[in-house]
Amino acid sequence: MAAQQVGTFKEFCPLYSILNAIPAKVQKGFRSILVYLTALDANSDFIAVGSSIGMLYLYCRHTSQMKKYSLEGKTESISVVKLLSCFDDLVAVGTVSGRVAVFQLVSPLPGRNKQLRRFDVLGVHKSNINALAWSPNGMKLFSGDDRGKIIQSDLDFDKGSCNPSLILEEPSSVVQLDYSQKVLLVSTSQRCLLFYTEEKAVKQVGTQPRKSNGKYGACFTPGLCKQSDLKLFASRPGLRLWKSDVHGYVQSTFILKDMLSKGLEPFELYPRLENSNQDRFVLSEKHFGLMYCFLYEGWVLSWDEYSIYIIDTVNQAVIGGLESSGDIVSVSCTNNEIFFLKGDREIIRISNMPEGALSASLHSPFRAHTPVFIEDGKHHIGTLSEIKENDQIDVQSIKTEKIQLCAIEDEESLVDQATDLKSRTCSLSTDQVKSRSSSINSIDSGFSLTATAEPVSPSNGQRPASQRFSIISNEEFEQELVVKSMKVKKKKKKRHGNHFFLCGTEHIYTSVSYK
């Protein structure tokens, strides 16, 4: 496997388009109220931001438009938001008083929802909502609060109903929720457990209790699998990670304290004038926090109020992170992007590509894991044994290929031109076809349009394909090929008595140039 350098994760540009669309203050009567950003979630379509005035701001990444949704009633701060893209686009919102609301968004696509609808879960939670989790089809929403109550809300969008029910109650506050294959993963400040929604059974992850309570999270590994194949990662005190199966048996323990004590490659943030003179927060002790699976198989992202870490559990390496930051309010990751909310109103995007330069392969849910190792302070793709088989390593950055899409009408016109060319070729003589095929296929003249053409050989004055390709240099190969199509005039038919005949024969040429 060839070695390729992994791109550096950094902030390419501040998200001014989002921040400028959210007001810094609002007028309520005679008072001017400051607007603080309190919650964040993101996917490939939207960025959802909760605020201290009970307003949800939803930014569409395709149209660059911001919309706002009000919870109505009492103004209260939003504590958590959760997006879901399935048949309809859904947003769940939790507040500090225990209110949960679901917005079913309007979609311009045919057969999708055409009217904004809101569903409220009232009278169940009495304290701050800390965590939300969707089922993949959007029919179930799980919510957990400060008092350890976990509510399952069954949604029926056709009937317009929402039926909440208490399914579990823990003695400590809920930190994080995740749901997959009819199993709810619950992480509280005291322990991590698995709740089987059909059997109504509970199993604890691991047998050893935590040495100390804290905001330690857990998440399932993504992938299409059955329930028995589910795996999960759970953070533990002392910079440790557990990898467990769906029955709660711990399969691996990753101790990363020594690795993180050596330092890590920090995220490069865009320089800010207001933060240039501020001192960094000094961490007395490092901790893992909430957990998310990120980008590759075996990669996990952990964050708390002071730090963010990207860990490769397969190679037991730290890919990057952010330490001694402080004031990290919320973190969300999607594909190869990390969004986090810092301070009162600062949204930061971390990625190895600029906004809008995502490769299509990054959006695939079947993304295969590629091992990563560290050598000379750089992250390389491929196992160390595979890399060292080659004496010389040419590390190059990943090249992407631009694909230009054409409209359906243009595609049909191209098909008509190809059909027209085929019909005229069949009506010509063999000599004419030979001369025309040599002009059209000027790059590779070893292919002819008809089966009657003579095979290409060195005796005909032409080199074989293997010899021609072997003399192409790397510089010529990397040149950009530009193909320009020319308009072709339609055949004109003239009537002569009772007979038709073709007036002239148009040739089709394709101009090829190199840049």
UniProtKB/TrEMBL annotation:
GO cellular component: cytoplasm
Example GO biological process: protein exit from endoplasmic reticulum
Cited SMART domains: WD40
Start and end residues of each HPS5-like beta-propeller domain: 35-344
A Pfam family per the record: Beta-prop_HPS5
Keyword vocabulary terms for this entry: Repeat
InterPro entries named in the record: Beta-prop_HPS5-like, WD40/YVTN_repeat-like_dom_sf, WD40_repeat_dom_sf, WD40_rpt
This protein's name: MGC81250 protein
Organism annotation: Xenopus laevis (African clawed frog)
